[in-house]
Amino acid sequence: MTTTTRRKVGIAGAIVGAASAGVAAVTLAKRYAVGRIRLRPDAELAEPFGELKGRERVLTTSDGVSLHVEIDGPEDAPLTVVFCHGYCLNLESWHYQRRDLRESHRIVAWDLRSHGRSERAAAEDTTIDRLGDDLAELLERFVPGPCVLVGHSMGGMTIMALADRRPELFGDRIKGVALIGTSAGKLAEVTLGLPALVSKVVHKVAPGAVSMLGRRGALVDRTRHAGSDIAFLITRYVGFGDSKNVSPTLVDFAETMIRATPTEVIADFYPALMNHDKLSALHVLDPVPTAILVGDKDWLTPPDHSRAMAAALPKAQLTEVPDTSHLIQLERPGVVNDALRDLIKRVEL
Question: Where in the numbering of this chain does the AB hydrolase-1 domain appear (predicted)?
Answer without folding.
Answer: 80-333
